[in-house]
């Protein structure tokens, strides 16, 4: 029987681990399929306080993991395959094999990349289709690329990809960007980046690897083919809450609803980070809510003997 089990190894989960470990609660952290969460897939983090020169996302994760380990956090690699939150103690099953009982649970399972769902996309995933410039950009040295999206992620991915690609075309379904002004300016000033406005990708073309995309201009209805060696999909994320559906209250998009800090509607179950945050979704807010969840769990345990 554990005091605290934390699901997720992004900034929210790791911060919850640091705090619960320092509170002598001997947390167990289940790392999940994407260890380190979204920051492990990112490049430079410039807006995390305390790093005036910025820090690489994977480095920040590695440092926080070591910090949590220093105070006694135990790590379990693997994905949660089942969770029963209907009665206390709660149970979580890892990879269909190991079942763990816990008095409190901190859900910090984050969010995953949304895909376009067009023909060719799933078939060519990993063969030119990617959701992670940091992971795959290197493979496209000297090539032309397409990025889809108009938010901060699309700007960040396209700017990063210009380190490798000769040209990056950003296809956006409207004629104005959603991205923050600073990210828009950075991308607009980059001479390797061009914007294809009012356009959606209808199909990813190619046999064994991506060779192009079919675009449709949503204003004129015209379709065209654009040659590209890769398609980077950067159209947002969806919360990883499938396992908890029907067990904790969520909003229409599947984000876990929290109140009084990080409390869910199930006493003893707390949620932190992007899994409960459709609004801010920043590294620092994820870490902050991980700290809150740890303190909430500690007080819950105190209150329940
Ligand atoms: P986002 O802000 O939700 O933007 C998603 C973009 O994809 C939008 O431009 C949207 O178009 C487009 N889109 C959505 N579904 C689409 C579809 N099916 N087909 C074509 N286009 C589609 O997501 P995000 O860019 O991932 O950013 C998420 C949050 O993380 C934001 O709060 C952002 O500020 C933050 N973030 C910050 C940084 C940073 O500061 N370094 C970096 C990355 C992300 P519409 O505009 O028409 O809706």
Ligand names: NADP nicotinamide-adenine-dinucleotide phosphate
The counted number of beta strands is 19
Query: What coarse outline follows from CA principal-axis ratios?
Result: elongated
Rounded to the nearest angstrom, the distance between the terminal CA atoms is 15 Å
Give me the Rg, rounded. Answer: 21 Å
- Which percent range fits the helix content? 10-25%
Q: Could you say which structural class the secondary elements and strand pairing correspond to?
A: alpha/beta
Low-confidence stretches: none
The biggest beta sheet, please?
7 strands, mixed
- Element pattern in H and E: EHEEEHEEEEEEHEHEHEEEEEEEH
Strand percentage lies at: 25-35%
The number of helices is: 6
Q: Which whole number gives the mean pLDDT?
A: 95
Overview features:
305 residues; alpha/beta; 5-stranded parallel sheet; 6 helices; 23% helix; elongated
What is this structure, in a nutshell?
The chain has 6 helices and 19 strands. It has 305 residues and is of the alpha/beta class. Strands 1, 2, 5, 6, 7, 8 and 19 form a 7-stranded mixed β-sheet that branches. It has a 5-stranded parallel β-sheet with strand order 10-17-11-12-13.
Description:
It is a single chain. The chain is an alpha/beta fold and 305 residues long. It is 23% helix and 27% strand. Helix 1 (11-22) packs parallel to helix 2 (57-70), helix 1 (11-22) packs parallel to helix 6 (283-303) and helix 4 (152-161) runs parallel beside helix 5. The longest helix is centred in the C-terminal third of the chain and has 21 residues, at 283-303. The radius of gyration is 21 Å and the shape is elongated. 42% of the residues are buried. NADP nicotinamide-adenine-dinucleotide phosphate binds next to helix 4.
């Amino acid at each position: 029987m554990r005091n605290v089990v934390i699901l997720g190894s992004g900034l929210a989960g790791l911060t919850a681990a640091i705090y619960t470990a320092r509170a002598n609660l001997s947390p167990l952290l289940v790392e999940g399929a994407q260890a380190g969460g979204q920051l492990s897939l990112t490049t430079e983090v410039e807006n995390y306080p305390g790093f005036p020169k910025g820090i690489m996302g994977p480095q920040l994760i590695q440092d926080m993991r070591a910090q949590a380990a220093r105070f006694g956090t135990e790590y379990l690699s693997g994905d949660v395959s089942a969770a029963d939150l209907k009665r206390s103690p709660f149970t979580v099953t890892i990879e269909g094999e190991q079942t763990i009982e816990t008095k409190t649970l901190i859900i910090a399972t984050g969010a995953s990349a949304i895909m376009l769902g067009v023909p060719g996309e799933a078939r060519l995933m990993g063969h030119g289709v990617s959701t992670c410039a940091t992971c795959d950009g290197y493979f496209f040295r000297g090539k032309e690329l397409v990025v889809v999206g108009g938010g901060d992620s699309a700007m960040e991915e396209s700017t990063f990809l210009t380190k490798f690609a000769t040209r990056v075309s950003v296809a956006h379904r409207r004629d104005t960007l959603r991205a923050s002004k600073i990210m828009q300016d950075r991308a607009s000033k980059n001479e390797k980046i061009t914007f294809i406005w009012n356009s959606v990708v209808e199909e990813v073309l190619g046999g064994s690897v991506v060779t192009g995309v079919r675009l449709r201009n949503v204003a004129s209805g015209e379709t065209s083919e654009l040659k590209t060696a890769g398609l980077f999909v950067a159209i947002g994320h969806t919360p990883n809450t499938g396992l908890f559906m029907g067990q904790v209250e969520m909003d229409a998009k599947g984000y876990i609803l929290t109140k009084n800090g990080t409390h869910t509607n199930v006493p003893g179950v707390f949620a932190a980070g992007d899994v409960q945050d459709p609004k801010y979704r920043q590294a620092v807010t994820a870490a902050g809510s991980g700290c809150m969840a740890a303190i909430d769990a500690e007080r819950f345990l105190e209150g329940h003997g």
